[in-house]
Design goal:
Elements (H helix, E strand, L loop, with lengths): L14 H23 L2 E10 L5 E12 L3 E3 L1 H11 L2 H22 L10 E5 L2 H4 L4 H12 L6 E6 H4 L4 H13 L2 E7 L16 E4 L1 H5 L8 H16 L3 E4 L5 H9 L4 E2 L10 H12 L2
Parallel strand pairs: 2-4, 4-5, 5-6, 6-7, 7-8, 8-9
Antiparallel strand pairs: 1-2, 1-9, 2-3
Helix pairs in contact: 1-2, 3-5
The structure holds ligand C2E and magnesium ion (3 copies).
Organism: Streptomyces brasiliensis
Protein name: GGDEF domain-containing protein
Length: 288
């Protein structure tokens, strides 16, 4: 908070806030060069089928190996990249790199250890949605890598689509028509009207971690159980699959399976990790 005393409006009273602001500024200005220097990398977290426990794919989660600050999570820099517009080239890089990775997994699976390709989930920021190159970039990346559109899922947060007009939905519709899955991420944290779901070109609901957390207690709060049960049945009646985030215990996984959720993701199965790790997990799974 700036002090007004002495008319010096730039004197900062809170050194921690000051340091945070300096870091934020430093990170923001370092972003473009970081992309050029290849300081970003992607960790992959498996998506597991709740019915049979098999690994069906992974979500790509970007990190920044900063030369001074070490590994930074996306919450530290995605908002800055969105603010400066760097999210467009950064997001394109994440998409290309993770689809290429999915292609590599596909090649390794050519030896018959698994009969279905691993799917890749990639997060999209709202800025990417409104960027005119999205559809073409995605088509080009899929063509270049030879990955089938139905092996790709783009995750868009519920809040990004609240009140979205037709112009914003058009590229998503186009991608969905091509066979790309669209997932509504962090579902349940926004205030979207459930009936509104019909209007959106989504095929997957990702139930936010806050729901999973309420399953931690045993027995879980009966009202929470009813809410999740209701969301799952509504989703299924609209032909949407349900993925749950943040599963940390076997009890949660079991509860969510009973409630009818289709796919799960969380530390109980694996933390986000390097691509080789996913390959190991999927391979163990495929060979028993
Ligand atoms: P998200 O898409 O909802 O991703 C799930 C987040 O939950 C990830 O955090 C993941 O590491 C974390 N998580 C997974 N399992 C568990 C669990 O069992 N317990 C707990 N407590 N957390 C778990 P992360 O990697 O820090 O990413 C945070 C957010 O940053 C993501 O949330 C996503 O919105 C955004 N993000 C990540 N990568 C990208 C990207 O390439 N582009 C864009 N636009 N956003 C990204
Ligand atoms: Mg996500
Ligand atoms: Mg999520
Ligand atoms: Mg989330």
């Amino acid at each position: 908070r700036a002090k007004s005393a002495g008319g010096n409006r730039f004197e900062l009273a809170d050194p921690e806030a000051d340091a945070r602001a300096i870091t934020r500024h430093g990170l923001t200005t370092a972003l473009p060069a970081a992309l050029d220097r290849g300081e970003f990398f992607i960790e992959y977290q498996p998506l597991v089928h709740l019915g049979d426990g098999s690994v069906r794919g992974a979500e790509a989660l970007v990190r920044w190996l900063h030369p001074q600050h070490g590994v930074l999570g996306p919450d530290r820099f995605i908002p800055l990249a969105e603010h400066t517009g760097l999210i467009v080239p950064l997001g394109r890089w994440v998409l290309e790199e993770s689809v290429r990775q999915a292609r590599e997994w596909g090649e390794r699976y050519g030896d018959g250890t698994a009969d279905r390709p691993l799917r890749i989930n990639v997060n999209l920021s709202p800025c990417q949605l409104s960027h005119p190159g999205l559809v073409q970039d995605t088509v080009e990346i899929l063509e270049r890598t030879g990955v089938q559109p139905d092996s790709l899922c783009l995750e868009v947060t519920e809040s990004a689509l609240i009140g979205a007009d037709n112009d914003l939905l058009k590229p998503l519709r186009r991608l969905a028509e091509m066979g790309v899955d669209i997932a509504l991420d962090d579902f349940g944290t926004g205030y979207s009207n459930l009936a509104n779901l019909r209007r959106l070109p989504v095929s997957i609901l990702k139930l936010d971690r806050s729901f999973t957390q309420s399953m931690q207690r045993f027995p879980a709060d009966p009202v929470d159980l009813k809410i999740v049960e209701g969301i799952v049945s509504l989703a299924h009646s609209l032909d949407l699959a349900v993925t749950v985030e943040g599963v940390e215990t076997g009890a949660q996984a079991e509860q969510l399976r009973i409630l009818g959720c289709d796919t799960a993701q969380g530390w109980y199965y694996a933390r986000p990790g390097p691509p080789e790790r996913l390959h190991e997990l999927a391979l163990v799974d495929a060979t028993g």
